[in-house]
Amino acid sequence: QRLNSKVLETEAEMAAEKLLTCRALAEAVSAAVANLAEAGSRLQRCGTVGKVGESSLEACLRHEDELTSAASRAVLDTVASLGVVLVAVATALSSEVLAPLEKFHRDAEADRVKQKEELDELRRRELSCSAALTACLQKRDRARAGLQNALKDRDKTEKKVGEKKSNWQLQSRSCRRQPLSRLRPSSNWQSERRRP
Questions:
Q1: First CA to last CA distance, the chain
Q2: Of 37, 50, 102, 187, which is the most exposed, with the fewest CB atoms less than 10 Å away?
Q3: What are the CA-CA distances from residue 185 to residues 188, 189, 195 (Å)?
Q4: Which long-range contacts (CB under 8 A, 24 or more apart) does 104-108 make?
Q5: What is the mean pLDDT of the segment spanning 80-106?
Q6: Helix (H, G, I), strand (E, B), or coil: what is residue 195?
Q7: How crowded is residue 84: how many other Cβ atoms within 10 Å of its Cβ?
Q8: How distant is the alpha carbon of residue 119 from its chain centre?
Q9: Residue 186: predicted pLDDT
Q10: Band of the pLDDT at 118, cuts 50, 70, 90?
Q11: CB 101 within 8 A of CB 29
Q12: What are phi and psi of 4, to 5 degrees?
């Protein structure tokens, strides 16, 4: 089966584009994981870093009445819990989405590189076979031309031999028609031959 290199090239380009999209998505998820983890960590520390002047939030809440102190602590606990949730979301995104996505990207990129090398090898083979085929066709054409010339030469030779044979047969027939006395040299011939 002959490979259609244009189709393979188009498929390779499409795979490269999809891998580029996959890489961009992995980078976006990675940035989201980092931002969520950082935000969650900051939210968890909100209660400990708040200050009013020289007093910390915790010190201020000790002097408040129980209702204000409880409401404030509930808000801080909610914010800290939100921070825990954001860190958990970041961890889940990292392990359940980002890690498999990066693994998929690495594996797909390795496959694409391998297939590109195979495609390049197939192209080299195709060029080599094409060159060999061209050389064979040229040899065939030269051999065919040589054979045609040899056949023409043989036909010419056979024609000449045929003409000579035909002439010889005509001479031989004319010799058969002549009486033997005409074919034998005359006695005068010997005497004529003796004369200097």
A1: 91
A2: 187
A3: 8, 6, 16
A4: 104/22, 105/19, 105/22, 105/23, 105/26, 108/15, 108/18, 108/19, 108/22
A5: 93
A6: coil
A7: 13
A8: 2
A9: 54
A10: confident
A11: yes
A12: -95, 100
Residue 127, token pair as written in the block: 């060029």
Which pair of tokens denotes residue 161?
A: 């031999």
Between CA 57 and CA 46 the distance in angstroms is 10
Phi and psi at residue 148, to the nearest 5°:
-65, -40
Structure tokens at 146: 């040589």
What tokens appear for 12 in the block? 């390779």
Asked whether 36 and 89 are in contact (CB, 8 A), the reply is yes
In whole angstroms, give the CA distance from residue 158 to residue 144: 21
Q: Which tokens is 113 given?
A: 């590189």
Which is more confidently placed, 174 or 150?
150
Q: Which of 116, 130, 108, 118 has its CA nearest to residue 9? A: 116
Tokens of 41: 């960590």
- Contact at 8 Å (CB) between 116 and 12? yes
How many other C-beta atoms are found inside a 10 Å radius of the C-beta of residue 15? 16
Single pTM value for the model: 0.56
Q: Are 90 and 40 in contact (CB under 8 A)?
A: yes
